[in-house]
Every structure is written in structure tokens, then in C-alpha cells.
Amino acid sequence: HISRRYRGKDVLAEAQTVFENTVVARDFDTFVIKR
């Protein structure tokens, strides 16, 4: 969850500098993590 005081694009850009394959999840998004 990202607080409304932060912009998703800004959080995503910062995270992608460390973890290239990053997405910002939204409420009720689901992901399958493969091993």
C-alpha cells in the first residue's frame, strides 16, 4: 500500500533504480510468483 501523499510514479521510479523489474501493486491485484 502506498499512502495517497506519495505519487505512484515517483515511488516506482525510485524502486526501479534498485530493482529493475518492479511494479506498483494496486488494491486487489494478484501475482503469481514462480520459483
Tell me briefly what this model is.
The chain is an all-alpha fold and 35 residues long. It has one helix and no strands.
Can you give a write-up of this model?
The structure is a single chain. The chain has 35 residues and is mainly alpha-helical. 26% of the residues lie in helices and 0% in strands. The protein has one domain (1-35). The chain contains one helix and no strands. The protein is flat and about 35 Å long.
Average pLDDT rating? 92
Provide the succession of SSEs.
H
- Protein structure class: mainly alpha
Q: Report, as a whole number of angstroms, the end-to-end distance.
A: 24 Å
Poorly predicted regions are none
The number of helical runs is: 1
Index terms:
mainly alpha; 26% helix; flat; single chain; 0% strand; 1 helix
What topology emerges from the helices and strands here?
Elements: H1 8-16
